[in-house]
Structures are given as C-alpha cells and as structure tokens.
Amino acid sequence: MIEKRQAPQLRVVAVGQGYVGLPLAVRAAEAGHRVVGFDVDAQRVKRLMLGESYVEDIPDSRLGPLRASGSYLPTVDPDDCAGFDVAIVTVPTPLRDGVPDLSHVEDAAVLLGRHLTPGATVVLESTTYPGTTEEVFGPLLEGASGLAAGSDFHLGYSPERIDPGNPSWRLENTPKIVSGIDAASTETIRRFYASLVDAVVPVARCKEAELAKLLENTFRHVNIALANELAIFAHELGIDVWAAIDAASTKPFGFMRFTPGPGVGGHCLPIDPSYLSWRVQRAVGRDFRFVELANDINNHMPDYVVRRLVGGLNQRKKSVNGSRVLLLGLAYKANTGDARETPAARIAELLIGMGAEVQAADPHVSDDAHPHADGLAHLKRVDVTSDGLAAADAVVLLADHDAFDYPLITAHAPYILDCRRRLLGAHIDSL
After folding, report:
1. Cβ-count burial of 285 within 10 angstroms (0-12 exposed, 13-18 middle, 19+ buried)?
2. Which residues contact residue 256 at a Cβ distance below 8 angstroms, ignoring those fewer than 6 apart?
3. How confident is the model over 81-99, as pLDDT tens digits?
4. Which of 132, 231, 271, 289 sits in a 20 to 30 Å window from 297, CA-based?
5. Is residue 331 helix, strand or coil?
6. Longest dimension (CA), the chain
C-alpha cells in the first residue's frame, strides 16, 4: 500500500453525481483539485448548484464552501467537461431483463472522448464485468477522440467502495484499488488517487480490478443468502437462528458474522453478482451456480417476510386483508436514505395486493428518493407515534435505523415482526 501524498492541482471531471460520484467529486475538490461534477439529471444539478446535498454522507456544510470557492462546479453542460486532466466515470450499470446495461458507461465514454486530449487520464469506477474497460470503454473513447489508449492517453479501472451510512469507513480511509491498461496508466492513476485517500492498492491489470469488485459483492451476497436460508429452516425447526449466530460469532477465527434480513438492496448485491454470472455464462458457457442460488434465496426473502407476517396475524385471529400494517424502514440498510432496490418496495406491493392497509415510516428516506425505488411512490408515509403504533395490527421492522424510538415501538405495537433482531418481547417475532 502506498501512502497519500500531495499532488499538483488537476482539472478533474466526475461523470455521475450520485452515491459514488458526489463523494468522489467533493473529496477531490477538498484535496485541492478543480472539479466539474457532470450529471444528466437537471434537478440534481440544480440542488448542487445551491449547495444542497442529496447524499447523506456529504452534508451541506462540506458542499457549500466548495461551491462558494468555485473549486466544485456541478453541471449538465457537456462543454464544461472540456480541458480535463483526469476524468472519473461513476455512472449506474443496471440490469435489463438480466442483461448488463452499459448504456450509461457508453454515453460517458463518447462524451469524454469528444473532450479527450493527449496526456489526459480516464478512469472507470462503475461496477461492471471483467473486460469492460478494455473491450468496451476504451474503444469508445478512442473512437470519439481519434486518440489511442496507452500511447496518447492513460486509461484504467478503480472499483468504488462506498458504503452509504458507514461512519467508520469513508472514501478517504478505505484502501483504493487502482489499475491501468499499462504501467504508465497505472502509475498516473495511482498518483491521482493517492492525493485523495490514505492508501492505494495497485493491481497489475484492469480485469483483476474489475473482478475484485465483483468478488467483494458476491462474497457478501452468497453469505447473506446462507444466513437467510438458515433463518427460514431454523424457524421451521424451532431453533433460534440469531442465538446460533451469536454463539458462532464468538469464534475468533474461521467465521465471519452475517445475519438474515428481509432481502438485499442497493446496487451492489441485487445487481453486481449477476454481472459476473452473465459474463461467465457468455464467455465460458456455464452457470455460476453460487450466484444463481444466492439470487434465488435473497430475491425471495420479501415473499418469506410476507408469509411470516400472514402467519403471525393468523395466530392472532386476524386476516392480512383489511389489517393495518406499519413498515418501519424503507431504506435497504440501516442509517441511510438509500432506497435503491429496497426489499421494502416488494413487501409493500405484496401486502397491498393482499388487501392490507400499508403505511410506512422512515426518517432517512425522503419523498424525492421515491423515484429510485419502484413501489414506494404511492405508499402512505407517517410518523412513528404511540397512537399510530397502537392502531396497527402489525408492525414490521425492515431497516433498523438508530433514529427509531425502540422502547416506544415495543411498548405500543401489539404485534411486531422484527427482521433485524433489534427488539425482544412476547409480542415480537424475529425473522
């Protein structure tokens, strides 16, 4: 690992100003670079122009001074990207019918290629399958610029490791993997990121760096699926899976704690491992069975949550049809407002389809986050009050935000299905 050192001021373009791109742009500006944050979302850029952040890890107090000093310029104008020394691409890479959609990456490559000059550096950070940087991204840059990667400009890949809502591991103190298509590209990219983060980890080739990101996410995906399936079978066997996990977690070696939940969300787990599975199937002609099995288990956890809720209501001589159900936590994880691919959307959809009156509370997920989570836009939002809890036939804890008043919830909710093992009581069922 190579320690951070001061680098000369560079003109940096960050394409994509979401959960990854905005923290990167802000950190680069704080490090002394002149940064352009490009995004196609005009409303998002309008807020950034006013110094308003929509990413919880970047408070307005960090963004405002950078805007006032002119070191950070958010824009929707492609011409503002001209003259860059370093360009970083952090655009989404969704799945469309199970197939990787690289349209945003391709658009970014064409945009940057039109402004690419000899000696400049372009880095892809978007999560994708091994080979994308050299087989897709690079040729598009070359085609749009008329320049050759390696001989005329530097090109590489550096996987993002942003963990929204994590107070301990942030962009600047999380080791940063970097790679280039040749030694000169790797060294140039290494020097740039060394000005932003505490430790840089060079990797010889882009394909290994691309695979490293997918390995990190697939590791979590598979182990969470194991915990989820264990929870299902332990419940049927009359065993407390959470007590078993607590006991196993006392082993100081050979075990890493993973816990069950209502399903996986965000970009990483529901999508990224499928990029690897698709690549293996396409290139090798075989199924990546661990990924396919993990997808099947984790994707069906919302259905299992609803089945458990139906069973809990039946035990209390109530039908889900006509019952008032309060969902606590719409984000996919605790202490963040990130509702991308959240399992709460599927749970709400299933319950509403069964005739339940569904309400939801989340202190982090704002109304303007709804477009990023299909199924939440028309969900009735409420505050958590003693009267509201008492009036609910069932309360389901989906994301265990620290901001929730758990003693209040325990005291007033008549029946709780706790998907995070945050609560205890005779009227509380754990997933």
Report:
1. exposed
2. 223
3. 999 999 999 999 998 888 8
4. 132
5. coil
6. 73
Q: Is the pTM higher than 0.70?
A: yes
Statement: residue 4 has pLDDT above 60: no
One-letter amino acid at 390 equals A
Q: What is the mean pLDDT of residues 248-269?
A: 93
Sheet of 2-3, strands arranged across: 2-3, 199-203, 176-180, 154-157, 121-124, 86-89, 11-15, 34-38, 72-75
Q: What phi-psi label fits residue 423: left (phi over 0), alpha (psi between -120 and 50 degrees) or beta?
A: beta
Amino acid at 132: T
How would DSSP label each residue in 12-52? EEEE--STTHHHHHHHHHHTT-EEEEE-S-HHHHHHHHTT-
Q: Which DSSP letter does residue 71 get?
A: S
CB 45 within 8 A of CB 17: yes
Q: Is the pLDDT of residue 338 over 90?
A: no
Q: Using an 8 Å Cβ cutoff, are 361 and 281 in contact?
A: no
Active site residues: 268
* Rounded-to-integer distance, Cα 347 and Cα 265, Å: 13
Rounded Cα distance between 86 and 7, Å, is 13
Residue length, the chain?
Answer: 431
DSSP codes joined into one string, 286-317 = S--HHHHHHHHHHHTHHHHHHHHHHHHHHHTT
Say how far apart CA 259 and CA 266 lie, in whole Å: 17
Token pair belonging to 211: 């695979």
State how far the alpha carbon of 244 is from the alpha carbons of 230, 397, 398, 417, in Å.
10, 21, 21, 19
Report the C-alpha gap between 370 and 373 in whole angstroms: 5
* DSSP string for 365-398: --GGGGGGSTT-TTPEE----HHHHHH-SEEEE-
Q: Average per-residue pLDDT in the chain?
A: 93
